Amino acid sequence: MGGATVKNLHSSLERFSSGDRRALARIITLVENRSPEVPHLMGALYPKCGRARVLGVTGPPGAGKSTLTDKLIGLLRKQGRRVAVIAVDPSSPFSGGAILGDRVRMQEHFLDQGVFIRSLATRGRHGGLARATREIVHLFDAFGFDDVVVETVGVGQTELDIMRLAQTTVVVLVPEAGDTIQVMKAGLLEIADIFAVNKADRDGARRLKNELEVMLQLRPDADWQVPVLLTQATDGSGVTELLDAVCAHEELREKQPVPDEGEARLQEWYEILRDELSLRLDRALDGETLAPTAEQLRRGETDPYSAALETLANPAALVRMLGAPGEDDP
Ligand SMILES: Nc1nc2c(ncn2[C@@H]2O[C@H](COP(=O)(O)OP(=O)(O)OP(=O)(O)O)[C@@H](O)[C@H]2O)c(=O)[nH]1
Ligand SMILES: [Mg+2]
Fold first, then answer.
1. pTM of the model
2. Which of 128, 190, 242, 262 is exposed most, by the fewest CB atoms within 10 A?
3. How many whole angstroms separate alpha carbon 31 and alpha carbon 237?
4. What is the pLDDT of residues 149-161, one digit of tens each?
C-alpha cells in the first residue's frame, strides 16, 4: 500500500473509533464500492466485533418490514439501546427508490444519534452482496451499536445467505400472500425463528396464523417453538410481543453450547478470499495486467483452456496479476 493510502486509512479508523458517524458512513461507502482498502479496514476493526445482537427481518415486498423495524427501533430506544439498520434489496434495480422509501418510513429516528439507517445500493452487484452486508454489520457492531437490524426482501438464495448473519430471524408475512405453500418453497420455514403475520387489520390474518401453526407442528421437535405473532405495524400492535419473542430467542441461544467459532471464521476467510480473487481478476482484466499466456491467447497461438491451466501453473505471473492495486506505490 502507498504511504498516502495508509495515512488515510489510519485517520479514517481513528475518526471511526472516536464515534464519528461521517467516518462510519464513508467506510460503508467504501464497502459498497468494493474498494481495495476494505480488507485492510475490516481487519483492523475485526477485534471490536462480536458484541451486537443481529436481527434479521425478511419477507415479501411491501409486507411491512420497514414499518415494523421502525416500531422496533422505537421500543429499543426506550430501553436505551443503540440501533443500526441495513436495508438490502437484491431484487430491485431501483435502489434509489428503496432508500427514499425506507427514509420516509423510518424518518422519525433520523435525527436520533442512537440510530443509524442505511440502504445498501445493489445495482450491478453479484455474489458480493452477502459479503457487503456482513461487512456493514461488522462495522455497526464495531462502532458500538447494540442492535443491528438487517432488512431484506425475500426470499432467494442471496437473502438466505444474508439471513445467516442474523442470530434471530423474523419472517414477516401478510394475509394477501395467503399461500403457505409459497412459504415452504421459499425456504422461509427453515430460516424463521419467529413469524410475524403483519397487517393483522386485514382479512385472513388469523387464518394465515393458524395455517402457519399447523405447518410448524410438522417440524421435528426442537428446543425452540417458533411463535406466530399477529402484528399491525402501522399502529404498533403486537410489536412489544414481537420484541419479547426476539429476547426469548436470544436468551435460549445464550444458554445453548457455543457454536464452533473457529469454523465460522474459516468459512468467512474462504468467502472473503473467493470474492477478493474474483474482484482482483476483474480488475486485472480491466487494467490489462494479464499473465503472458493471455497475449498468446489473443494472437490465437493457444486455446483458453490451455492458457488458463498455464496461468494457474505459473504462480509468479498469477501473483503479479492479482497483486493489490497500489502495492508498488512508492
Ligand atoms: N393496513 C396495514 N398496512 C400496513 C401495515 N404495516 C405496513 N403497512 C403498509 O404497507 C406498506 C409497505 O410497508 P413497508 O414497511 O414499506 O413494507 P416493506 O416490507 O418494508 O416493503 P419493501 O421494503 O418495499 O419490501 C406501507 O404503505 C405501510 O404503511 C399494517 O399492519 N396494516
Ligand atoms: Mg422496506
1. 0.88
2. 262
3. 36
4. 999 886 677 777 8
